[in-house]
Amino acid sequence: MPTPPRLPAAALALATLAACASPSRPGARPAPANPAADPVPAATALATFDTAWTRIRDSHYDTTMRGVDWPAVRTQLRPRAAQARTMGELRIVLRDMLGRLGESHYVIIPREAVDAMDAPAPDAPSTASPAASPTPAGAASSTLPAVPGDVGVTLRLVGDRLLVARVDSGSPAALAGVRTGWAVDSVATFSARTLPASLAQLTTERERREALLRVPRTVDHLLEGPAGSPVNVAFLDAADARVTHSLTRRPTPGLPVRFGNLPVIVARAVHERYPAPGGGCVGVIRFNIWMTPLLPALDQAVDAVRDCHGIALDLRGNPGGVGGMVMGVGGHFFATVTPLGVMRTRRGELRFVANPRRVDSHGRATRPYAGPVAIVVDPLSVSTSEIFAAGMQTTGRARIFGETSAGQALPAQAGRLPSGDVLMHVVADFTAPDGHRIEGRGVVPDQVVPLTRADLLAGRDAPIDAALAWLRAQPPTPRAPTP
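Below the sequence we write its predicted structure tokens.
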């Protein structure tokens, strides 16, 4: 964490998760039928607008606001805020203000999405030890009593269809016979029948990339809820026949963590070993969020595949998190201190560098991993995931596979507004080691490998298969003796 407690925070995708968080999870307070219709006093509306406008003015990394006339924005929109009579109307004005900046990581997270996770669940077990102390605001916490659940599927938008890209072994979806390549037809408020027409209205590449990010995340959260609760889902199978299942949510595997004012997310890291020529192995490490409580699991995952011929890091769907973690994780793969990028605020610079890791997860002397490294990204790889992938790619330490990432890589922070909503806003710019901005561009793979329905129906994960094929084809790396 480079500048506690004002840290590079979660990505836009993480804020999207917050905005879609279900108030029906354990410990949630009952929410009004339509919280956006709640009345808002004029004084509160103006205080909220002024606080948001001022906070952005005072913290934006560029004093010229990248050419946006910020005082003029206030003059134009403040009267509209004063006229807002409901929370929904006020949020429209605030989002209009944020949209004038034209960058990612500007998000209004409704108060009900955040408050829903604040009440302790009755009789729910805590994941913290009895000696655990409260975590300061802005830091990641594992002291969370709620028990979120899911059905064990990973979704991706392919063309104009929302497809099952992965089914966890032993999950409710797997036990019900759900297969990769099946399309989601409906769940709760989502209906795939309106999706093609909605996507056809998108006219810019930016809008399309936003849809690739938001649609799967939104439906993910419709599938989530309290562990043990049911959810009805209709799929279209390989023959496009409609198959309906009532799935009982399992406890989401991993460690529930909280970052500042953002809702709970369950962090997890897993590793797998695949065969390589000559009887060796290639390792795959997957993790879904950059949160500091996950560091021990990540260190253990690297140790578990350290003897392999190559390692692939699967960052697909990873929405980011704590930016400073790239330095420690990067240290597993560099023998010398190596620049990974530069974060610039209006007060100065913070250079991200990989610090070589010379002890393993058990405190034993070791050397950073010297074999070939592949990284797999997709349109749901955001923020810290992009920072890490760009740094590894630009330095030549890793080859990138998959699809172009989200292009939303601006460090941000989140804080409450007088209305109770949370404002996420940019506090820094970030450039890769060669000076190029990731924002708006994304990480472009060295080898583009898109998902296709045909591959998924055949049980193939083409991006990871391509990464593993490349790793297996690399010459052996001479192993230095352990110090």
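The CA atoms of residues 455 and 461 lie 7 Å apart.
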